TrEMBL record:
InterPro entries: ChsH2_C (IPR002878), NA-bd_OB-fold (IPR012340), Thioester_dehydratase-like (IPR052513). This is Acyl dehydratase. SUPFAM superfamilies: Nucleic acid-binding proteins (SSF50249). Residues 55-119 form the ChsH2 C-terminal OB-fold domain. It comes from the Bacteria. PANTHER family: BLR3430 PROTEIN. It comes from Mycolicibacterium sphagni. Pfam families: OB_ChsH2_C.
Length: 137
C-alpha cells in the first residue's frame, strides 16, 4: 500500500487559488498593468512590480506542453498509481501549469493535444487538485 499523497499547504497569497479549486473553479491572478494572467500566485505583478493583481476565473482550457510517462514511482505515495503521467499544460490565457494527466492511455498522448480540467478531491485532506484529461476522452 502506498503512503498518503502529500497535501499542498496554501499560503495567504495562494489561498484564493485553492479555494477556487475546492469550488471546481480555476482562479488565476490577472495584472492590468502587465495586461496578462500570471501563475504562480504572488503579491506583485511580474515585470511591472505593480500591486494590481486581481483574481479572475478562467475555464481551464489548455494545450499539452510537455509530459513524461513514469513507469516507476516518482515517490512512495505513487507506488500504486502507475504509470504516473506528470505534465505541463499551457492555459489558453497564457501561463503554464504543472499537473498530472488522467483518463488517457500513455500511447495516445501527444504534445499539442487539447486537454480539459479534472478536479480531484484528495480523500480526507480537504484539498482539491487540478488534473487534466484529453478533451475527447
Amino acid at each position: 500500500m502506498a503512503e498518503p499523497l502529500p497535501v499542498p499547504e496554501p499560503t495567504p497569497v495562494s489561498q484564493p487559488f485553492w479555494d477556487g479549486l475546492a469550488a471546481c473553479k480555476i482562479l488565476l491572478q490577472y495584472s492590468p498593468s502587465a495586461g496578462r494572467y500570471v501563475f504562480y500566485p504572488r503579491t506583485l505583478a511580474p515585470g511591472t512590480l505593480a500591486d494590481d493583481l486581481e483574481w479572475r476565473e478562467i475555464d481551464g482550457a489548455a494545450t499539452l506542453y510537455t509530459y513524461t510517462v513514469a513507469r516507476r514511482p516518482t515517490g512512495p505515495p505513487w507506488a500504486d498509481a502507475l504509470p504516473q503521467l506528470p505534465a505541463v499544460v499551457q492555459w489558453d490565457v497564457g501561463p503554464r501549469f504543472s499537473t498530472e494527466l488522467v483518463d488517457v492511455d500513455p500511447a495516445d498522448i501527444r504534445i499539442g493535444m487539447r486537454v480539459t480540467p479534472v478536479f480531484y478531491d484528495i480523500p480526507g485532506a480537504g484539498v482539491t487538485l487540478l488534473r487534466y484529461r484529453p478533451v475527447d476522452a
